[in-house]
Design a protein that fits this description.
Layout (H helix, E strand, L loop, with lengths): L1 H30 L4 H10 L12 E5 L8 E15 L6 E3 L5 E3 L4 E16 L1 E13 L4 E13 L2 E9 L20 H6 L3 E12 L2 E8 L17 E8 L33 E14 L34 E17 L2 E17 L7 E16 L3 E11 L4 E11 L7 E11 L15 E12 L1
């Protein structure tokens, strides 16, 4: 009996395989009959004709140009694995009110970020979409995000979904192509985060680009819709990359087209000077997302310059909690690339005003300034780059700074895969983020090793 059952299963398997492998041949014979209906079916169902699967990502499927229903499905991945050691830091720090707080030390290896993106177009090449799963083992966080957009022309694409609020250069399609291991201390302190919204972007000609955004807040990745307030965040980023014109050939694109378009390094070295000048402004009325009787807020997007969460109880006065505040931030950035050398910098100024609290506060607003700078040079073209970096915050309650150096090793002939080793010294970090190297109050030397795959 068992033999008969096995025989039947083998027959069924062979029948399935025959149907699978013979179907294309049968379809081709039917197509040869000249039936208009059959020809239409063949156009829609024809296999991908391109021999080049890797086109700024893995092309899973793409219909031919004459398909009745145009469709593209492409697959991309960002993976970041990091060793981090902050054991050299002191164990406590004191905030501006004299309260002693713990410094959380780290010594770990984490899949710091892992994300895969499926995207392309459907029904019309102008109807674009993407689906992203973003995870951070360090933050024990998983976010599923999607976008739907319409590309009118090079000057205007309108999209809705999840994205970074474009208040800083590092949030305008740069991740993870930074010079150093990640965003700087100053950038993390000042910048907005990620949320849902609607944005328009495009190129207005002669190297002038923009991204204008309206969304739910500075950072609502892990905030449920019933807790998000009714105020919308507004942010706009504009940048200019001078191009060569008639009789002037010194300038060209700041980066190569594709996913690494906005990378900070001069991996694709050229003796043509490439420049970038940009600015961004963000305005958002922020809510703590938690009841006033809870000392720790769910809104963790804002820190005071002494490393204390703006919405935590006692951030400005003992026992007093701020429930709402207005965040405004202006950033100016610039960059230069030439023959393997890349220098990039950014200046920030942030205002937090219009406090709504459950008790009296000693101040009515705060103003914080800061900046970052990186410089990298390829000692061996497209292989080994040495870099140095620094950032600082001049704050309402405390000043902080960091400086460091590292080596970046592209061990395969691509800008999409690299190993970075870095050591930096920091004095009183004003920010905490589980998927960044920084913990509030951290002080001392910090070594890191990281590898990144971003195809």
């Amino acid at each position: 009996m068992s033999f008969h059952r096995a025989f039947i299963r083998v027959c069924l398997a062979l029948a399935y395989m025959s149907a699978t492998f013979l179907a294309p041949s049968a379809f081709a014979q039917t197509q040869a009959s000249g039936s208009a209906q059959t020809q239409t079916q063949a156009s829609v169902a024809a296999p991908q004709t391109t021999n080049e699967r890797y086109r700024d990502g893995i092309v899973i499927y793409e219909t031919p140009e004459d398909a009745t229903v145009p469709f593209l499905l492409k697959f991309n991945i960002n993976t970041q694995i990091r060793y981090l050691n902050t054991l050299n830091s002191e164990e406590t720090y004191t905030d501006h009110l004299g309260v002693t707080r713990e410094v959380h030390k780290r010594h770990d290896i984490t899949v710091n970020r892992a994300m895969f993106i499926l995207g392309g177009y459907i029904f019309d090449k102008r109807a674009i979409y993407s689906f992203t799963v973003w995870t951070s083992a360090g933050a024990a966080s998983i976010v599923v995000a999607s976008n739907i957009g319409w590309r009118f022309n090079n000057a205007l694409t309108l999209t809705g979904g999840y994205t970074g609020v474009p208040g800083s250069r590092s949030l305008v399609n740069t991740f993870p192509f930074f010079t150093s291991t990640d965003r700087s201390m100053a950038d993390n302190f000042f910048r907005p985060g990620f949320t849902q919204g609607v944005w328009a972007n495009g190129e207005l000609g002669k190297g002038l680009s923009y991204l204008a955004f309206v969304g739910n807040g500075l950072n609502t990745l892990n905030i449920s819709a019933n807790k998000i307030d009714t105020h919308l965040a507004k942010s706009v980023s504009v940048w200019w990359e001078p191009r060569g014109t008639a009789g002037v050939t010194i300038f060209s694109l700041y980066g190569q087209p594709g996913k690494s378009r906005n990378m900070y390094d001069d991996y694709f070295a050229s003796k043509r000077v490439r420049l970038r000048i940009g600015t961004a402004f963000t305005d958002s009325r922020e809510d703590r997302f938690s009841n006033l009787d809870q000392s720790s807020p769910e809104n963790t997007s804002l820190y005071n310059s002494d490393g204390v969460l703006t919405f935590s109880t006692g951030a400005f006065a003992p026992g007093v909690t701020v429930n709402e505040a207005t965040y405004r931030m202006w950033a100016i950035d610039g960059g230069l690339k030439w023959n393997g050398l890349a220098i990039n910098g950014q200046y920030f100024i942030r205002w937090i005003t219009d406090f709504e609290a459950d008790g009296p506060l000693p101040i009515t607003s705060t103003t914080d300034h800061g900046a970052e700078i990186t410089a990298g040079y390829f000692l061996k073209p497209k292989k080994v780059m040495a870099y140095g970096r620094a950032s600082w915050v001049r704050g309402e309650f405390r000043n902080s700074h960091e400086f460091g150096a590292g080596l970046k090793f592209h061990y395969l002939p691509t800008e999409r895969l690299w190993l970075t080793t870095e050591v930096f010294k920091i004095d009183r970090a004003p920010y905490s983020g589980a998927f960044t190297p920084y913990t509030a109050g951290m002080k001392g030397w910090v070594p890191m090793i990281q590898t990144v795959l971003a195809f």
